[in-house]
Amino acid sequence: MDNTVAATPQPFPTLHDKTLIMLVGPASAGKTTVIRAAERLDTSFSFVQSFTTRKQRDLTDTSYMFLPFEEAQALRDSNQTVTCIEHPTTHDLYGTLEISFRTEYCLLDTLFNSVNTYTSLPFSRTTSISITTPVQKWVAYFLSRFPQESEEGKKRLEEARLSIQWSLAQSSDHAWIVNDSTPEDAAKKLIAIARSGSKGDNGTEHAAAILHTIEQGIW
Fold it and tell me: 85 is in which domain, residue-wise?
């Protein structure tokens, strides 16, 4: 008699030899731009194409797979999603599939409240990086997107406030990048953090200044 016990299949086996780099930061800090620059500099790095149920603001935006809410729910309910998380202020769904993670180093623009979920997945290694920028630069870019007070803008500011508070509270498995010059410079810092364990910049002063500006009122 063969008494061999069959091994339990591991979920998402293609993730086991990959490193996940989670980028956290307020809207308008340049996360997507830095990710794209890292891809150009090193082909071992690629962005994680998440799906979302939010409305597509720019028809040329390929950062996400834009899905109807019902389709995203169906993927989640049939266990085809690696993650599926509700946004804390807009209540849109954001998630990933196994095919979203394509190269040795996977770069994910993610929400602060998703970090623990991704850390629990079977990646070879995970780390989080908070991206910040000088406050004047951040305000100028944010106001170029939301020049007047709006419900969408207020939701983004609340998300930014929560994100920065989370970043300032981190003490381990976490690094900072100050995006204060060119995206390529910031991307080089990101690559160094991923490959050599560099701690990056000291971004707490910049992040605290942005948080203070949000709390004082931006419009």
Answer: 49-100
Paired with 86 in beta bridges are 93
Locate 2 and state its tokens.
């063969």
Query: Nearest 5°: CA angle at 139, between 159 and 132?
Result: 60
Distance of alpha carbon 201 from alpha carbon 172, whole angstroms: 15
Amino acid at 71: E
Burial code of 65-97, b = ≥16 C-beta within 10 A, e = fewer?
A: ebbeeeebeebeeeeebbbbbebebbeebbbbb
pTM of structure: 0.84
DSSP 201: -
Name the nearest CA neighbour of 125 among 111, 104, 96. Answer: 104
pLDDT digits 0-9 by tens, 141-188: 999 999 999 999 999 999 999 999 999 999 888 999 999 989 999 999
Whichever domain contains 81, its CATH number is: 3.30.63.10
| Those residues with Cβ within 8 angstroms of residue 66's Cβ, 6 or more apart along the chain or in another chain | 51, 52, 53, 54, 55, 56
